[in-house]
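debug: dumping io for the single-chain case to check the tokenizer round-trip. Nothing else runs in this session.
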Amino acid sequence: MIRLQFSIELNYQISEPGCDFIFSIHAAQTQHQNVVSEALVISQPLQSNLYTDPVTHTRFLRLKANAGPLMVHYEATVDIDHYTAAPDQLNEVAVANLPGPVLPYIYPSRYCQSDRLHRLAVKEFGHLWQGYSRVLAIRDWVTKRVTFQSNTSTGNTTAVDTLVEEVGVCRDFAHLMIALCRAVNIPARFATGIDFGADPALGPTDFHAYVEVYLGDRWYMFDPSGVAIPMGFVRFGTGRDAADAAFATMFGGVTGTAPVMHIQAIPNAQGVLVVPQHVSYGLSTDEQLVRQ
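debug: decoded output
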């Protein structure tokens, strides 16, 4: 079992009273990801509300802030006991047999225009065996095609834009992989969180976006950006694309600075330090889903 300890500090300057915020910075509580301890500090004396989506387990923190500086600090210790599976045992599921909660993730969405990439996806991946290896082929295709480079995209950049520009950040890699998976009828969703094990050359620890693909009977993790280690992901939220899983959404006159984040692996409850590493088998932190 992996135990990760992390902290996030967000700082804003609010120019008008009564600005609303929605944050998704709390670690999700799932069957294989357990929040051992956590603490939240808000610099202003505000009433906050924490809502957990019963399907995705995403936890949304809502608050209305006053004018002036606002600091939000969250820290947690999380145990991750991954569900693992052999790749040759993970098959794709026919659309007619998908569980109800999975259905939204086969359609095109704002940033993942799978309908526009259908011909390309069929040409590149339509002939491959339908299972985990085909998803790996899509992941590797995106990793090789797109170059990771900071500050190369905006909040309007879509999967098609990334395909054309061949450059982007983690969310852009994720959107392109998701769109290509959906284009060949593989359910895929956008996931956000914090990761342990990224190359320090990429800069300070930051939020990370990756992909979860539905195979067999649950969601499995993939990192098309190639800059992180899936075993070191702590999941915050999931959605159809980045529009559903932003770490912070502000309503009003607000300016902010870069988040300050730290993460480390620490000894687990048995006193053993387990450091995340790359593996060849499927990893999931989600529960089993069956057709209803």
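debug: round-trip ok. The radius of gyration is 19 Å.
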